């Protein structure tokens, strides 16, 4: 029998209410939340931690990461030995966990082996939800060969450092989606617009035909899951949502009518504003090719405006960052960027209850309720008054817990 831990006199903040709940008592045992009460919990053997004046939050959730991306140059990253990529990914995930992110959704690159290694206790990091390799058409956002590299595109399909794989035609798209699910993908990611980091596709390019996207959506539905899509332009977003895409990544260039369509169809947006600031300031120094640097402002300058458009339409938004290599250290700054436009509680919801909904784990992560996983951060002060308390590489988090195990405990 594991010893229970009781957090006492806590201010709870998980996004389910606008102001949170004060003076609560939370009992954790066996990796789960066993009890939440407005009165002291009796247990003579439990460890007790007084949180008077502090805020107890669920572990944070980042819904757009690439844990295999230790370089901003994806073409070079795909050529690295798998062992090196895996060890770099473990380091990146450990740093994420110490920022308070207890669950992350990898949207291109990570494989089931990384998930299984964590389940076996071979490394300590956030809970990892994966799509496997992202699907791209030839010349799309996961085809990093450039103009003069005429190797067959499948040379990188099975490299851990590869973001994605290339598939063309309805039959090949079906087969690729099925193959990723066979290998452990929990959802499917497609590249449905051009991108910054890829060499031959301007932002406005549309990835895949309608028939190809519809086939991939059908395969995901048949496997009881959903499709996430890399999307920037209003045209691309509207097309993908009409075809059944559920998770719209980035969405920088969305317009109001398309945002309303997203709301009607139940699509969830996952903006990633911090990465454009980081790429603009540091991308070239970390290997981002000049052709990619030139495309950053095509999406960066509309980022904050897109938040207002999505919010006004009532679109559910999840928290995402999309950072690469050493720029991962900016992961928590997305909170502050969004806070310039959105109420603090909406930003917090994006990394808690909204993120849990997108991932497909409502009631298990992102909330402080009985039977949820015991994933917590304790924050010195009130994040509703100051979102920067969630930044600083965990400096303002004296306690971080995942699955009932202390990752960090400076209080007891």
Automatic annotation (TrEMBL):
GO terms for molecular function: hydrolase activity, acting on carbon-nitrogen (but not peptide) bonds. Residues 55-394 form the Amidohydrolase-related domain. This is Imidazolonepropionase. Signal peptide: none annotated. CDD domains: Met_dep_hydrolase_A.
């Amino acid at each position: 029998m594991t010893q229970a831990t009781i957090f006492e006199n806590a201010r709870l903040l998980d996004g389910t209410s606008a102001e949170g709940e004060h003076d609560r008592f939370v009992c954790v045992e066996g990796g789960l939340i066993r009890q939440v009460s407005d009165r002291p919990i009796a247990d003579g053997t439990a460890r007790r931690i007084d949180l008077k004046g502090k805020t107890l939050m669920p572990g944070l959730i980042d819904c757009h990461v690439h844990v295999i991306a230790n370089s901003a140059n994806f073409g070079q990253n795909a050529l690295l030995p798998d062992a090196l990529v895996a060890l770099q990914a473990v380091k990146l995930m450990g740093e994420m966990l110490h920022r308070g992110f207890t669950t992350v959704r990898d949207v291109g690159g990570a494989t089931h082996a990384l998930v299984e290694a964590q389940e076996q206790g071979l490394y300590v990091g956030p809970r990892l939800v994966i799509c496997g390799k992202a699907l791209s058409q030839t010349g799309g956002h996961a085809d990093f060969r450039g103009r003069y590299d005429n190797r067959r595109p499948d040379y990188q399909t099975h490299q851990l450092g590869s973001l994605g794989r290339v598939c063309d035609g309805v039959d090949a798209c079906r087969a690729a989606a099925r193959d990723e699910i066979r290998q452990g993908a929990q959802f499917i990611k497609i590249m449905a617009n051009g991108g910054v980091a890829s060499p031959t596709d301007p932002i406005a390019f549309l990835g895949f035909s309608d028939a190809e996207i519809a086939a991939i959506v059908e395969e995901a539905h048949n496997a009881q899951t959903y499709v996430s899509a890399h999307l920037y332009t209003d045209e691309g977003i509207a097309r993908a949502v009409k075809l059944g895409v559920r998770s719209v990544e980035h969405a920088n260039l969305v317009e109001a009518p398309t945002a309303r369509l997203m709301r009607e169809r139940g699509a969830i947006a996952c903006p990633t504003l911090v990465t454009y600031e980081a790429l603009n300031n540091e991308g070239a120094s970390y290997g981002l090719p000049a052709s990619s640097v030139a495309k950053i402002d095509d999406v960066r300058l509309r980022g904050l405006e897109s938040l207002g458009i999505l919010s006004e339409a009532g679109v559910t938004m999840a928290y995402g960052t999309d950072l690469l290599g050493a720029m991962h250290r900016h992961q928590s700054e997305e909170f502050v960027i969004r806070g310039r436009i959105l109420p603090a509680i909406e930003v917090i919801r994006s990394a808690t209850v909204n993120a849990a909904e997108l991932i497909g784990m409502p009631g298990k992560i992102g909330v402080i309720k009985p039977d949820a996983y015991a994933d917590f951060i304790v924050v010195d002060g009130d994040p509703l008054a100051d979102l920067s308390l969630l930044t600083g590489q965990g400096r303002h988090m004296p306690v971080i817990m995942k699955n009932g195990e202390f990752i960090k405990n400076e209080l007891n």
